Amino acid sequence: MDVTRSRRSLALLTTGAAALLAAACGPGAILTAETPDLAVSTALQAVETTPLQASFSGQLTLSTGNLSGLPASIQSALGQIGSGGSATGRLVQESSSRRQLTLSAGGSSLRLVEYDGHAYVSQDGGAYAELSTALPSGAAAASTDLSTAVADLSFQDQGPATVDGVSTEHYSASITVPSLEKLAQDLGGTGSGSAELGPVLTMLAPYVTGSGSADVWLSTRDGSLVRGELTGSVSVDVGAAASAVAGLLAPTTGTASLPTGTLGASLSLQVDVSDYGGSVSVTKPAATSTLPASGGWSGLLGLPSGAAS
Question: Is residue 76 part of a domain?
Fold first, then answer.
């Protein structure tokens, strides 16, 4: 989520070149002069540092009716999620190190604030708690990972479109199990924490079917992100996958206690950007408690009341 000084310089050079192209060739030159992947990666990298506001809406649907034999911990987690649901959110971003994200789902809300390397969380409008450790700085890796992800997905130009009155160019990429395998393998060497994900996806690929798409709409005026959408559905043969894993880990133990059935999931997410490059301010929260480092970010969504140290 952070960016390096060199990337800021690149962003300035890109912006200057875009202005010259637009002045010389008219609206849309910044996009038509670039490959789809370059246009998309440039826009997404700029989103990480530019003052802006953005709204989110998402829908997750799970199908777990024919699953059986799951471990109690997984059954409990699926029970809390149920058949899925919808969520909305709002992002206010002042800079690459100052952001406020508000999420609402199931009648509850969560507010996350990143302020100069520190993280704060508040549930349902209550007092803020501060994460006891500073946020890691992954600027170089984040930039590399983003370019790698865009290149592996291979965006295609779908032509002009008008979004909320804004003239845009639409780019789309198909998401498949093989493309996710390749992405995980490519990210494994960038220090992004994906080193083990590639082999896992390769092992599970025979038991997973599904597809999706990533779509972005970029302003023809300056190449900035106007809207992004992510949709997809997947079906996992949990029984077959569990048998394969058990056979690799302990071939002589048998499969009598392994889970069976199929897990289905579908996801849709839409992001709309507004006030791009405008005057945006994020206030540092006054924290009244501290989240223990052992909880990390994984505990934020399930933070119990009074979880202070």
Answer: yes
